[in-house]
Amino acid sequence: MKCNTLFVGLDVHKESISVSVLEGRKRQPRPCLKVPNDEGKLRRLFSRLKNEGTVRACYEAGPCGYDVHRLLRSMDIDCEVIAPSLIPVRAGDRVKTDRRDAEKLARLLCAGELTPIRVPTEQEEAVRDLVRCREDLREDLLRERHRLLKFLLRHGRRFTESKHWTLRHWAWLRTQRFDEPAAQAVYTEYLSRLESTLERIRGVEQELSTVAQQPLYNEPVARLRCLRGIDTLSAITLVAEVCDFHRFERPKELMAYLGLVPSERSSGGKQRRGSITKTGNSHARRILVEAAWHYRHPPRRSKTIQARWAGQPRPIVDQAYKAQQRLHRRFFRLTCRGKPSQVAVVAVARELCGFVWALATMEPKAT
Q: 279-289, pLDDT tens digit by residue?
């Protein structure tokens, strides 16, 4: 009898995986298994399960990545990776163990109550990791700059000729000397670490620029660069984080995915709306909010933006300039009504998200 369907919930950890199997007919889980997180052991286990019927498996997205998903897919087993934040939770459930988590996933998978995520390909995941590596390095750069400046401030060294991190400021930094050998050693270490991080960032950015020229990314990056506030690095970040814009049927779905829609707690005829949800992908959301600040300026067909428009179809260019007009008008109206500029920028970022979706999914008419 191989017409039975087995629903398998996996609680994946670095060393082990808890496995709960629920038969579609009996609706009762089998005793939970705990197997090592090893490719050979998993292959043997799921090969036995395939002999009993159709197998559907799932596990939560987490730090262990997508290796289990790719392994099961290579065995022609339907496996879904579940968004942890969208798993239903019972209000009175106060016990959490690996076994209970695996059984819960199996039951909810059988009931169709789980929301899977889109699993990126290995190439998409590699590019996304490169994008996030750059973000990590920029965070390190910020800390190292603060560390160096605070060290100089403790020793009464302040630069007042111009802004920090200009060429004049760098020239001033390289002339600083300390009488105490220990203080000089500390300063040399801080400065060399800062210069090393800057060099590493330049290397990663050069690699991202090379990736942006690849056939998979060339067209979407070129389209998104037509928008004001989005250049190559911002565009490749959006493409790497979202992966496939066509999986969103409407721009509102992308806005919700990036957490740019207002939160709401309405009941009994009363509407209560709050700040944005901030769910989903925070990396892409940050890029859009940063880009939205550019729309406080009036629309312009500057030389820089016209260079980005060169070679693009007319519908793409028209849509990009329409974004400048509409989003500047949106920012101006909100600030004139007394809204703080930060609130207005988030509202502009939400509409900018719609234009990003439009450009990424548009199929220009042949001219």
A: 889 999 999 99
